[in-house]
Amino acid sequence: MWPRTHPCQGPQDTRLCPQPLPLLPMPVILRAAAPGCTMQHWARRLEQEIDGVMRIFGGVQQLREIYKDNRNLFEVQENEPQKLVEKVAGDIESLLDRKVQALKRLADAAENFQKAHRWQDNIKVRTADDPESEDVERGSKASTLRLDFVEDSNFKNKVNYSYTAVQIPTDIYKGSTVILNELNWTEALENVFIENRRQDPTLLWQVFGSATGVTRYYPATPWRAPKKIDLYDVRRRPWYIQGASSPKDMVIIVDVSGSVSGLTLKLMKTSVCEMLDTLSDDDYVNVASFNEKAQPVSCFTHLVQANVRNKKVFKEAVQGMVAKGTTGYKAGFEYAFDQLQNSNITRANCNKMIMMFTDGGEDRVQDVFEKYNWPNRTVRVFTFSVGQHNYDVTPLQWMACANKGYYFEIPSIGAIRINTQEYLDVLGRPMVLAGKEAKQVQWTNVYEDALGLGLVVTGTLPVFNLTQDGPGEKKNQLILGVMGIDVALNDIKRLTPNYTLGANGYVFAIDLNGYVLLHPNLKPQTTNFREPVTLDFLDAELEDENKEEIRRSMIDGNKGHKQIRTLVKSLDERYVDEVMRNYTWVPIRSTNYSLGLVLPPYSTFYLQANLSDQITPAAGDFEFLLPSSFESEGHVFIAPREYCKDLNASDNNTEFLKNFIELMEKVTPDSKQCNNFLLHNLILDTGITQQLVERVWRDQDLNTYSLLAVFAATDGGITRVFPNKAADDWTENPEPFNASFYRRSLDNHGYVFKPPHQDALLRPLELENDTVGILVSTAVELSLGGRTLRPAVVGVKLDLEAWAEKFKVLASNRTHQDQPQKQCGPSSHCEMDCEVNNEDLLCVLLDDGGFLVLSNQNHQWDQVGRFFSEVDANLMLALYNNSFYTRKESYDYQAACAPQPPGNLGAAPRGVFVPTIADFLNLAWWTSAAAWSLFQQLLYGLIYHSWFQADPAEAEGNPEARESSCVMKQTQYYFGSVNASYNAIIDCGNCSRLFHAQRLTNTNLLFVVAEKPLCSQCEGGRLLQKETHSDGPEQCELVQRPRYRRGPHICFDYNATEDTSDCGRGASFPPSLGVLVSLQLLLLLGLPPRPQPQVHAHASRRV
């Protein structure tokens, strides 16, 4: 395609201009006139018409005068970014510090209670008669009580402040001596929880997660057990993992020799996946399989961050492992040590460990350990004997014991979860031995609270076992658990400025991984309870080099300020704007967080009203909020903000306005229960917009200019739509700060057109009763005493059908609408004309996102608002290829998608060995490993029905959830670098099309005139704008250029006094022939396994 420029002399020159000869024959219609000069003439007519309407009805100049006339009613305040961000950071620090003090009291008390506790071997448990009742059992010995729960909005739950509650994982026997003793001594924490709340009533959940799996939390609330399997185990929660050990570099090696097959291989695959779930974003991992040789199971060739997306790659790759060859421990361990010694990559640089899963072997590979790990033993080795076999496990035990690790056995499914997480006890030893030095509070990533609080961060503090076995004995090195206190993100948000920053200003915060805990774009559509919410700052915004530098500086704990030009998405995610933004950031002391403030230049100043005598219904401008005034003054929508504490919220704006008026009749001016800033600014803007009605709108005839409505929206929260009847079709958000037209108008100069939103899958617009309109808006910029700000947006709503007719006239050779059309016959000469030649010429107005605004083709009127590629794919592609549009692609990691249908519809659990009658009658079979494996498989199957295909979302998350988290690819288009007016040919042989395009000044519109396609040969590629499901960027490529991050500042991976003699010796119990025979008969009779009763939260007094 070749651009052809047409220089016309002077703004009013409409004469024919010389143009180069086309390389291909000119279309018939465009041959008759010089399209460049004609187009420029039409463009000027369109620009003048739009500007004239906006000047008459928009009232920008008049609104400026109104603000100046009311100058005594408000003050101009300044946002000082450095002071603002430091104040907010200080407020957040104070909030978190109060939680830290409560944490320390709890941790100290827990250690003392456990130290004073006397172990009881014969402890008994008393349970409630009805396990489904809301009765609460007080620990292990007390009687059962029925509790009353009250709804508490702070917890979004029913709670009882007098008691604690307990949750015990499904796969742990709650009547065991260990658990009963745990319940006994932790019961004493109840008074500490209550005292903490008395000192700080804002405290939310206070939780002790025990290393035994017991969770004691306060206040008591019924446990939210899912409909299927309750897989909640506190030891696998993000906050517990982070608090129980220092960061880890882990290499998992899996034996895939020929002896590993069937159920054993499945157990290994599941074990690896469960092991990955014990890792957090502070950890690094790689997974390899080995037989004679070792190789990574995925495309990752080195340690990678154990984030959600990388772990997903591992889990999918592990399923492809195939057993073959012979066992070669040496190959596996050499590969693992090489991985851990690679210093040219980003890694945790703290605990180093190798986790080996095998079915057994004889080689101890002592020479490998001597070469790589001895004498310092900086790498711990954990070995896992998987499945039922007759191999000697002594070599596996020796490997673990000789390398400061632990040996575990996983004979069946039920042993997987417990034995893949207990290595954390070993990693906790150096932390316990470090004593007070290790008693440091850490703050977590954002995650979803299991009890319904929503998004939270948690302060964690490890709790150590301070007991000694006897006088002069070594100090105990076991971690008792982790203490945690939740802080809701909403509580942190309340400390940030709400409305003084304007519609496009905001506060955000990130952690050492670069993940946001505060950001207006942090809006996960669905959450997985087993994973933290990890949205990177560079994914929350559109990434560029400047933001990478800002992110690095924040992670490093520096202060800074930078003004950048960057791209931002519109609120409806249909547009991208290039804007100026000021970034200011400071660290939040005593935490791993950093706080940032983003301000557009026009938000440096803001208005603060002072209307102490204008708030009551009987005074001032308040009367213009009353519905009785709407018929003459236009309909008023008020932003649903928290003006007063007692104001009842409502999604219905009419009802919300009614609630507001009723409350204003009761409260006094400047009431302490109200936010005076919000209230005063609302009333000020009510009066300001009413004066606009009085001075401009009321005396104008909207029909003369084919307008459906005029409107004004303000920072103060007022949206006034005139006339009143137009409010029936008003679909914009009543909160201006959440309205796309409002935010885009502030960021763009001139007039911003917004056609009605149309989805390609929905039916076309219905042009009935002239209700379909196109919004045209522009910001009102004030200059007061040398200070510039934009406190309002005004605009009009065009009647689509009438303006489509007007567009044809303006893009024709008629001088006005009443002039008759010129008829063209076979012998008459016709100039290029979008009205007369509409059968041959396509004339359209497109906005800066590539959406159709107006067309000279009547059949396209119902397609207004659609992406133009859906209307004319060939022409849109040509505009993109000629740089009229630029494309921006990004990924939405917070999307929700419909669940995929299950791949296996069979009723039986996969991987279960079902013996034949011959096996049943063969006595040798009963003594074989197969029979023992079957017994344990069925025993745990009663609890974990369909283990291998259990849906984590339903098993542990919200049982009503019907959607799962997924990645969506988003594509937006915006104006490219071409500002000139030129035409080009779309080369399609005999079907070539000439088009001419020109930007309309002071608008976001592109005017395009093109030859209609003569045949289908011009059909080329189609540009896509619609959001599509995606796997995201290629993870194998991303890990080669990892984003900058820093791990926690503390590391406890070594202590010279550590006792490594407890390294696992394995355990087993003999089979019972009677049980095996009974289970076999059940199988042969085809009886389904009996479902496990639902386990409710157990409390100090059983829930």
TrEMBL record:
GO molecular function: metal ion binding; voltage-gated calcium channel activity
Domain spans labelled VWFA: 249-427
Membrane topology value: Single-pass type I membrane protein
Keyword Oxidoreductase: no
Highest taxon above the source species: Eukaryota
Family label: Belongs to the calcium channel subunit alpha-2/delta family.
Protein name, entry field: Calcium voltage-gated channel auxiliary subunit alpha2delta 2
Source organism (scientific name): Panthera tigris altaica (Siberian tiger)
